[in-house]
Design goal:
Blueprint (H helix, E strand, L loop, with lengths): L7 H19 L3 H38 L3 H30 L21 H7 E2 L2 E2 L1 H20 L6 H10 L5 E2 L5 E2 L1 H6 L4 H35 L5 E6 L12 E6 L9 E3 L2 E4 L2 E4 L7 E13 L2 E13 L15 E3 L4 E4 L10 E4 L3 E3 L5 E4 L6 E9 L5 E11 L5 E4 L2 E2 L2 E3 L1 H6 L2 E4 L9 E9 L6 E4 L5 H7 L7 E11 L14 E5 L1
Parallel strand pairs: 12-18, 21-26
Antiparallel strand pairs: 1-2, 3-4, 5-6, 7-10, 8-9, 10-11, 13-16, 14-17, 15-16, 17-18, 19-20, 19-22, 23-24, 23-25, 25-26
Helix pairs in contact: 2-3, 2-8, 3-5, 3-8, 6-8
């Protein structure tokens, strides 16, 4: 408008017109200046709130990293790098704001800045700009922004922070800016050169707000991403939790399948139960007790957000007898003897002795669980019936038949020796007549009550008791060498047995006189 082929007068008019427009533009209204002041106040309040909130979130992230570890440790490290970069840049911008306010006096009554009087641009224009370039201070401002961006880029290398980083780089893009006429203008020139002090102050406070927002976004993202990662199904395992660990054939198998995870970084303040903590889990170490259903219980104890938490647990398992011998039976040898307390061990595999009941004629308990005595009466067979109550409340039963036999006939003995014996008649006179059962399952003792004493050529003598009497000795006086004395019809009774039990006569014993 001031160029071209114009007369000097026209050029002067046009120049004066431009000066007039510039003066109008510089004569910014008081309302606009106050609006910038209010905007600055809003940013200042937001920055103070963001600083407090960010500190609280970072503290929460540090607590999680200390307690839960895992992904929270790396997230906390990133957040601290961002906090350090933000503080450095935030404090530097604070020094720039101090430049803007140099020579500005705060109202003593209200404590506020004189917004309407802050219409000059002298402070920053003289400090930052020289001709078409930047002063040393101006270059320092540009370098500080670049350093801040570089530190943030280095801290946020993980792709999950890309949106935050893109927004930050966009807000602090230091490229030249086209003005309304399409002319490229340097970054600081476009935003600060010639602007009123209150506008520059608001712009710098906005820079601080942008930095605090980026810091807040990073901490929130770090905290949230770590929590999501730790809660991801990929960190869990499907765990089968049956109601007990031993089942009988045909019994319903009950339990549940749950999702859980073994966290090697889990920090517990204590563990109560039969075992020890190892790599974020309790390793059970105990000894199986008595046969039957047993209970396993305890609790995990840990600290969360400064508060003690106690997680109780309880499980069941079944103890069965240790298989230390094979179950071998001779089908034809299932025999019990009449008149004797036949010892028996009765049990059900997998069922505690206190839940087993046995019954039979003549069957009685013999002290310890599972121990019985069977003293059968008349008849040729006896049936032992057994029932057991399982852990699910159901009852199982079984039975077994035993043959009843009388005690076999004993063997007669002279001086404890059976069979044909040889010796002087003097030994026979003083020997005891007895009855024995060699190689029998029970250690039985018999008492001879009567026997028949027969010497060749003489009448038989019936003796009551177990010793040779006077008649026998008189008969022995007439025997000669080579004669055989026969002791037969040996009657006896069982010492300690059933009183009315009849014992068969013992086999005869022969004594040859020498």
């Amino acid at each position: 408008m001031a160029g071209g082929k114009l007369t000097p007068r026209q050029k002067m008019i046009n120049l004066m017109y431009l000066v007039f427009i510039a003066m109008l533009a510089m004569n910014m209204s008081k309302e606009v200046l106050s609006a910038f002041g209010l905007i600055n106040e809003r940013f200042e309040a937001a920055n103070a709130s963001a600083t407090s909130t960010n500190e609280q979130m970072l503290q929460a992230l540090d607590t999680k990293a200390s307690e839960a570890k895992g992904e929270f440790v790396a997230a906390a490290a990133t957040a601290h790098k961002v906090q350090a970069a933000t503080k450095k840049f935030y404090d530097f911008v604070g020094t720039l704001k101090a430049e803007v306010l140099k020579g500005v006096e705060v109202d003593k009554e209200t404590g506020k800045l004189p917004f309407e009087a802050m219409d000059k641009a002298d402070n920053l224009d003289h400090s930052w700009f020289t001709g078409d370039g930047y002063t040393t201070r101006g270059k320092e401002v540009m370098a500080s922004i670049e350093a801040y961006k570089a530190e943030m880029n280095a801290a946020l290398s993980d792709k999950k922070y890309a949106p935050i980083l893109n927004e930050l780089n966009k807000k602090f893009d230091l490229s030249e800016v086209k003005d309304k006429e399409g002319v490229k203008v340097k970054y600081l020139d476009y935003h600060f050169k010639g602007f009123p002090a209150i506008a520059s102050l608001a712009k710098l406070t906005a820079w601080q707000n942008d930095a605090k927002k980026a810091e807040s976004d990073v901490i929130s993202s770090a905290l949230g991403k770590a929590a999501v990662s730790e809660a991801s199904y990929s960190k869990f395992q499907a765990i089968v939790a049956l109601d007990k660990n031993v089942y009988f054939q045909g019994e319903p198998v009950t339990g549940k399948v749950v999702l859980g995870k073994y966290d090697p970084n889990a920090q517990f303040s204590g563990f109560q139960g039969p075992g020890r903590l190892e790599n974020g889990q309790a390793v059970i170490a105990t000894t199986a007790g008595s046969v039957g259903e047993q209970t396993l219980s305890g609790s995990f104890n840990f600290i969360e957000n400064g508060k003690p938490i106690k997680l109780p647990f309880q499980g069941k398992y079944v103890v069965v007898p240790r298989p230390n011998s094979a179950n071998i039976s001779a089908d034809k040898m299932n025999v019990v003897y009449r008149g004797l307390p036949n010892p028996m061990t009765i049990s059900f595999a997998g069922i505690g002795d206190n839940f087993v009941t046995a019954s039979a004629p003549g069957l009685t308990k013999a002290g310890a669980n599972g121990k019985y005595n069977l003293n059968p009466g008349s008849g040729t067979e006896v049936t032992v019936s057994v029932s057991g109550k399982m852990t699910d409340g159901k009852t199982v039963s079984d039975k077994k038949v035993f043959r009843i036999k009388n005690i076999p006939a004993p063997l007669g003995a002279i001086g404890g020796v059976t069979g044909v014996q040889k010796g002087p008649k003097s030994r026979l006179e003083v020997s005891q007549i007895s009855a024995v059962l060699p190689d029998f399952l029970y250690d039985l003792n018999f008492q001879v009550t009567q026997f028949t004493f027969k010497v060749p050529g003489q009448a038989a003598i019936v003796v009551n008791g177990s010793s040779v009497n006077g008649q026998c000795k008189a008969a022995l006086a007439r025997v000669t060498r080579g004669d055989q004395v026969t002791i037969s019809n040996i009657k006896s009774k069982l010492i300690g047995g059933v009183g009315n039990l009849v014992i068969k006569d013992a086999a005869p014993v022969v004594y040859e006189i020498q």
